[in-house]
Amino acid sequence: MHVLIKLLMKKILLVLIPLIFLSACSRSEQGVRTADLPDEDLSSAYAMRVELDRPLPEFESPTLSGNVLTSSSLSGKLTIVNFWATWCGTCVVEIPELVVLYDEWSDKGIEIVGVSMDVEGFEIVRPFAEDFQISYPIILDDGELAEAFGGVYALPTTFLVDAHGTVVYRFLGLIPFDEMKDRMADLMRKTDSI
Fold this sequence. Notes:
By secondary structure, this protein is of the alpha/beta class. The protein contains five helices and eight strands; from the N terminus they run αββββαβαβαββα. A six-stranded mixed beta sheet has the order 1-8-7-4-5-6. Strands 2-3 form a two-stranded antiparallel ribbon.
């Protein structure tokens, strides 16, 4: 009987470990809330997408490059705000795609802002950003900005902000980039038609 229980536990672990690894990272001591997840169903295999309609929170934060980024400097730009951390495996998978997206869309008035939740600060973020050749602005957050966005439940969490400064979508987990590009193109068309 004891051997049977061990075999059953091994099978359960073989199923659970990959699921946990592939799911979004969370680390509540980093200021990321992991409780009270929204009730919305998963909309794709990659991420949960939630439609929102709230103003972009006001913020002012130093960037990795030494500049200051403010919410007002994003006015008129379609913006992706990506909360991530260097210790998050899913974030490590997602960031190269964000770099490519930024390279492809930045000349169209798109901005990406990386919001690192690393408590060690720019000291740990800088070599990571250099290794991944991140060219978009990176700022740090101790949880205050995440809270202003309505809560970040796990990492990565990505918000899409329209050119009028309205947060219109939240993606929890790995971004489905084809869907993101479609939504960005739709928002650009809506902005152009106004």
